[in-house]
Write a structure and sequence with these properties.
The structure holds two protein chains of two kinds. Chain A has helices spanning 2-15, 33-57, 59-63, 65-85, 90-114, 119-136, 140-160, 167-180, 189-208, 212-219, 229-255, 262-278, 284-296, 300-319, 325-349. Chain A is mainly α. Chain A has a domain at 38-114. Chain A is flat, with a radius of gyration of 23 Å. By secondary structure, chain B is an all-alpha fold. Helix content of chain B is 82%, strand content 0%. Chain B is globular. Chain B starts with a helix and ends with a helix. The chains are: A mainly alpha, B mainly alpha.
């Protein structure tokens, strides 16, 4: 069934003079998601045993921070070599993944002991380490993992430095930037996508946890420990709303829609309304930004992640301490009514076209 | 449309589509939204987001005032919610997604109602009774509704009540024998459900054909039998010796059913993972003695990696073979 659709699509593209020649053979290596998930789970089990091997056989490695880091680095170098030399083989991919994970764990263990007192320092070091691995190791799943951990570590560093409120905005901005350049750099598509998915996971995580609870949970201190106090918090919320507006602006530019166009005004109006809502419910901006970018790229997974982060944020909002449930319910209700009113307004300002036109 | 996007991006990565042509190819094949799609998207986004926020606002308001509401007001609210959902079901009809979602919602609220009754009147019932009664209450709806999600909910409730029953009535022996007996019962239940579902689906009941639901059941069945095998290996308690043969029988059955008759690679992947877990447990039990032996760890690690690579290779081959036919 898929082979038929493939053939059909190639044929149509050829008729439109977008491609030429014969259809390339389908890549046999791309597997369904559950097979990849199974391989990922098994890779982890293997890595645990390898770590046990190091722990049992080389106890002295675990006792010394430098030894742990150096051995970990060598292990990761070995894994990188495996991936680069035998990129296609299944066994090599599995072995490399397990070895690399064990090496990363050892390096983080060493870093944790070095940076005992500074969370920011350690987080930055881990981010750098994972970023380097992202660039060096060409495997897709490995890249998703390294980009996710790198983004999360960078976010932790930002939070540790005293700016937890800006984390969702920063991660979402990076996400928007990556995904909007997906089609411009098609030859590096796999790298961009892996990085994009990793960033998306980190952004979803931070959006769902937006608010004081996250800072309390991870850093063990409330918002009073943050730089700039209340002002910084408000700026963080402003940033969360602004990132949505920025995403819409960049999208309009990519689609070639001039800003004077009524459709552009409607889109920006909607984004501004949601940014306003984000001033009080800061998770809404980033979540809708992820959803919009996912839809713009025809990527259902990304759009789904956007919806997920929105629902997760609503659940988190219930528990947030910034206002009583009464105030929050009033905010939500008025936001809901505003959005529905905006929808009615949109139907007037952007009427349905009599025939379907492609932009 | 999602498929077209994947194909085109694959071809672009292979260099068969020039870089400047990727965007045009995607638009041409309809993988990217056009102006009309965007308008519809914005329309739906504003609608759903607006409704969700309004509804959340109402829920938050009720939560705020919960303590002050009288007993009857609370009952009226919960029961009113069920009645409203059923009204939506009647209005939309069970063929539409809206009707199905409303019935599922009503089924969930029934649980809340039962919990509320138990809490208000201090019936002293055990937790498993709540889930058992809940399952019994929604059984007629599941029969009438005829859609997979509701049946999956029903089975989840039955599973929960069985698990909690053994927790409640275990006693001293329960702590020792409990996990195994409970797992056997759950295994029997979920495997029977999976078999029945597949048989009915194959016999022609169209609404049972959604794969995700029966995959969930098969996962539950596989998880139970894997846990049983692991428990036997680890010698958790003087249980029966039937776990290992049952596990192997399950694997054989799953292989024959899902490789040849019903072609679903998902269950085969689950079976492969089960084999890896049991093999790792078996080797771990027999090779790792009192002081952890480094060589044993390394060997087991390599075995796990080798097994998973082999499994991955086999599964990919089977998947592409099934796709071709």
């Amino acid at each position: 069934m898929n082979a038929l659709r493939r053939q059909d699509l190639w044929q149509r593209l050829r008729e439109a003079a977008l491609v030429e020649g014969d259809m390339p053979e389908p890549d046999a290596a791309s597997a369904p998601w559950y097979v990849r998930a199974m391989l990922g789970a098994a890779g982890w089990i293997g890595a645990l045993f390898l770590l046990g091997f190091v722990g049992a056989g080389f106890v002295w490695v675990m006792e010394s921070a430098s030894a742990s880091f150096v051995v970990g680095a060598l292990t990761c170098a070995g894994a990188t070599a495996i991936f680069r030399l035998r990129a296609e083989g299944d066994f090599a991919a599995q072995f490399g993944m397990a070895v690399s994970l064990a090496g990363q764990a050892m390096m983080v263990f060493g870093l944790a002991q070095w940076f005992e007192r500074s969370l920011t320092g350690m987080a930055l070091a881990v981010a750098l380490q994972q970023g380097l691995l992202f660039v060096l190791v060409p495997n897709f799943i490995h890249r998703c993992w390294t980009s996710w951990t790198a983004a999360s570590a960078a976010a932790l560093a930002l939070a540790g430095a005293g700016l937890p409120g800006f984390v969702p905005a920063a991660l979402t901005a990076a996400l928007v930037w990556i995904w909007l350049s997906e089609f411009d750099q098609a030859e590096r598509g796999a790298l961009l996508r892996a990085g994009g998915y990793g960033m998306a996971l980190a952004a979803v995580q931070s959006t769902m946890l937006h608010g004081e609870l996250w800072a309390l949970w991870i850093l063990g201190r409330g918002t009073h420990g943050a730089l700039g106090g209340e002002t910084a918090l408000w700026l963080g919320r402003l940033a969360s709303g602004a990132v949505l507006v920025w995403a819409v602006l960049r999208l309009l530019r990519r689609e070639g829609v001039p800003l004077q166009d009524s459709r552009a005004r409607v889109a920006l109006g909607g984004a501004a309304l949601l940014a306003l809502i984000s001033l009080r419910a800061p998770g809404v901006g980033p979540a809708v930004a992820i959803l919009v970018i996912g839809h713009a790229n025809g990527n259902r997974v990304l759009a789904g992640l956007g919806i997920l982060s929105l629902l997760g944020y609503l659940a988190n909002y219930y528990y947030s301490l910034q206002a009583t449930l009464l105030v929050k319910s009033a905010l939500l209700a008025s936001a809901g009514i505003a959005l529905l009113a905006a929808r009615l307004a949109m139907r007037r300002w952007w009427p349905e076209a009599p025939e379907v036109q492609r932009a | 449309m999602a498929r077209a996007r994947d194909f085109i991006l694959d071809w672009a990565a292979q260099g068969r589509i020039p870089p400047h042509g990727v965007r045009r190819a995607l638009e041409y094949s309809g993988a990217l939204p056009g102006a009309a799609d965007w308008r519809a998207f914005l329309d739906r986004l504003l609608l759903w987001l607006g409704v969700a926020m309004l509804a959340s606002g109402v829920v938050f308001f009720l939560a705020y005032n919960w303590q002050e509401l009288g007993r009857f007001a609370k009952f009226a609210l919960v029961e009113g919610l069920i009645v409203a959902s059923l009204a939506v079901v009647w209005w939309q009809g069970l063929e539409h997604a809206g009707g199905k979602a409303a019935l599922l919602g009503a089924a969930l609220v029934v649980g809340a109602l039962l919990a509320f009754i138990g809490q208000t009147y201090q019936t002293g019932a055990d937790t498993f009774e709540l889930f058992a009664v809940w399952a019994g209450a929604i059984l007629p709806w599941a029969l009438v509704g005829r859609f997979p999600a509701l049946w999956v909910l029903w089975l989840a409730l039955v599973n929960l009540s069985v698990t909690l029953y053994f927790r409640a009535f275990g006693g001293v022996l329960g702590i020792v024998f409990g996990p195994e007996r409970q797992l056997w019962l759950l295994f029997a239940l979920n495997t029977a459900a999976t078999a029945l579902w597949e048989a009915l689906a194959a016999a022609g009941v169209a609404w049972l054909r959604e794969r995700w639901a029966v995959r969930v059941l098969a996962t539950a069945s596989g998880a139970c039998v894997t846990a049983l095998a692991v428990l036997q290996i680890v010698d958790w308690e003087p249980g029966s010796d039937w776990a290992a043969p049952a596990w192997m029988a399950w694997l054989a059955l799953a292989y024959f059913a899902y490789r040849n008759a019903i072609k679903d690679v998902y269950v085969l992947a689950g079976g492969a993972l089960s084999v890896i877990v049991v093999a790792a447990t078996f080797l771990g039990k027999h090779m790792l003695k009192a002081q952890a032996d480094a060589g044993a760890f390394l060997l087991i690690g390599v075995v796990v990696i080798g097994l998973s690579a082999a499994a991955g290779y086999w599964l990919k081959r089977v998947a592409s073979e099934m796709e071709r036919t």
